Structure formats: structure tokens, C-alpha cells
């Protein structure tokens, strides 16, 4: 269970500054795992690229259904980097108004088929995640003038 988050950057440049100045500082802890500012930056870069490939981007809503709290921290940072907005999907909702979503296998069957779902606990997702660059996002990847870490 997520137990603490010491900072919540309001902008990407603030996120860069935090990661650079406090790279080894713990920003989140859950289930005996700690996440440093530098790890959060790298992990959210990977997640941002995966979401961009699915079609998420500036101004888009991304549906979040049954995402574990620890992963939610990374996803929310990724969404901030690409200019997308998180939209929680309650358990009873079948069809979120989003073209891209993130969920887990146990929840996937009850969700809309019109949404492109990134299923966190599928092997293909893990393989894609591990093979995706954690380098800072480039403006050309975002298709806008938005600068991301």
C-alpha cells in the first residue's frame, strides 16, 4: 500500500530539478519497495513512451482502472510529461470516455473494447516496458513544444 509521497512537482521542469537535486531521495514507498526521485523520472519516461505509442498525448484523457497505487504514481508522472489527464474508472463502469487506458488483467474483461488498454501485468507489457528507453523525452516524441524530463 502506498504510504508516502514527499513531493508533487507542479511542472515538468520542477520534476527535472527534483530528480537532479534529490535523485536518491525516496518519493514513494509501498509493499516494502521504495521509489527514488531518479527512478520515478526514468520509470515515468518509459511509461510515457508506451502511452504515446497507444495514442495518448496532450489534452487526452487516459482511463485508469484498478491500477495499483504504486504504479499509479509512475503513471501520473508519465501523463504529466505527455500532457494527458488521468481519469479514474470506477469498478461499475464498463465504457470510459477515453481512447487509451491502463489496467490489470483481473479488471480487463469488464472494460470497453473501444479503448486501447495497456494491461500492466501482462508479459508483453513488461517486455515492452523493459525494452523502452528511460532517457528524457524529446520534443519530437511529444509532437509539441512541451518539454519533458
Any overview of this molecule?
The chain is an alpha/beta fold. It has a single domain, classed as Rossmann fold, CATH 3.40.50.980. The chain has 6 helices and 7 strands. It has helices at residues 12-21, 37-54, 69-82, 105-108, 123-131, 139-142, and strands at residues 4-5, 26-30, 33-36, 61-64, 85-88, 100-103, 116-119. The protein has a 4-stranded parallel beta sheet. Strands 1-2-3 form a 3-stranded antiparallel beta sheet.
Which terms summarize this structure?
149 residues, alpha/beta, Rossmann fold, four-stranded parallel β-sheet, three-stranded antiparallel β-sheet, 6 helices, disordered N terminus, disordered C terminus
Short description:
By secondary structure, the protein is of the alpha/beta class. It has helices spanning 12-21, 37-54, 69-82, 105-108, 123-131, 139-142, and strands at 4-5, 26-30, 33-36, 61-64, 85-88, 100-103, 116-119.
Instruction: Order the strands across the largest sheet as they lie in space.
Output: 5-4-6-7
CATH topology: Rossmann fold
Helical content stands at 25-40%
Number of beta strands:
7
Amino acid at each position: 500500500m502506498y504510504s508516502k509521497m514527499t513531493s508533487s512537482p507542479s511542472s515538468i521542469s520542477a520534476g527535472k530539478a527534483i530528480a537532479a537535486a534529490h535523485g536518491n531521495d525516496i518519493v514513494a514507498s509501498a509493499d516494502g519497495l521504495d521509489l527514488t526521485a531518479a527512478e520515478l523520472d526514468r520509470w515515468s519516461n518509459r511509461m510515457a513512451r508506451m502511452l504515446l505509442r497507444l495514442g495518448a498525448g496532450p489534452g487526452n484523457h487516459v482511463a485508469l482502472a484498478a491500477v495499483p497505487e504504486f504504479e499509479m504514481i509512475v503513471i501520473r508522472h508519465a501523463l504529466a510529461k505527455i500532457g494527458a489527464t488521468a481519469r479514474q474508472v470506477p469498478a461499475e463502469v464498463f465504457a470510459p470516455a477515453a481512447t487509451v487506458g491502463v489496467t490489470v488483467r483481473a479488471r480487463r474483461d469488464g472494460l470497453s473494447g473501444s479503448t486501447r488498454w495497456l494491461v500492466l501485468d501482462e508479459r508483453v507489457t513488461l517486455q515492452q516496458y523493459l525494452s523502452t528507453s528511460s532517457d528524457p523525452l524529446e520534443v519530437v516524441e511529444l509532437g509539441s513544444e512541451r518539454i519533458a524530463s
